[in-house]
Write a structure and sequence with these properties.
The chain is α+β, with helices and mostly antiparallel strands and 102 residues long. Helices cover 30% and strands 24% of the residues. It has one domain: Glutaredoxin (3-Layer(aba) Sandwich), CATH 3.40.30.10. The protein has four helices and four strands. A two-stranded parallel ribbon has the order 1-2. Strand 3 and strand 4 form a beta hairpin. The two termini are 13 Å apart.
């Protein structure tokens, strides 16, 4: 995603893109955790959390579907994860130029 944003910035006629990351697990993701997580993305990424109701409204607005996954792995360690997918998503393996032109 960061490289796609860099490609867009090469065209001065385009407005600056501000990537937004919204948690779908507000019970687990605090403001501090989201701030730390955003460091793994483009430097302008804004990471947001809120109440469960606010997150639900955001997921509907952006047509994101999610479910929480709780299970133990093969070492019997607890794993809590969330799977989320935009309705018209591009995968992580999508090359940056394809993200730019989609």
């Amino acid at each position: 995603m960061g490289r796609a944003i860099d490609i867009l910035e090469e065209d001065a006629s385009l407005p600056k893109v501000v990537p937004i990351f919204i948690t779908v697990d507000p019970h687990r993701d605090s403001v501090a955790q989201m701030k730390e997580y955003a460091k793994d993305f483009h430097h302008r990424t804004v990471a947001l959390t809120g109440t469960a109701e606010q997150v639900a409204r955001a997921t509907r607005a952006f047509r994101v579907y999610f479910s929480n996954v709780d299970h133990r792995d093969e070492d019997d360690d607890d794993y809590v994860g969330t799977w989320a997918r935009p309705a018209d998503s591009l995968g992580r393996s999508t090359p940056p130029p394809s993200l730019v032109f989609s």
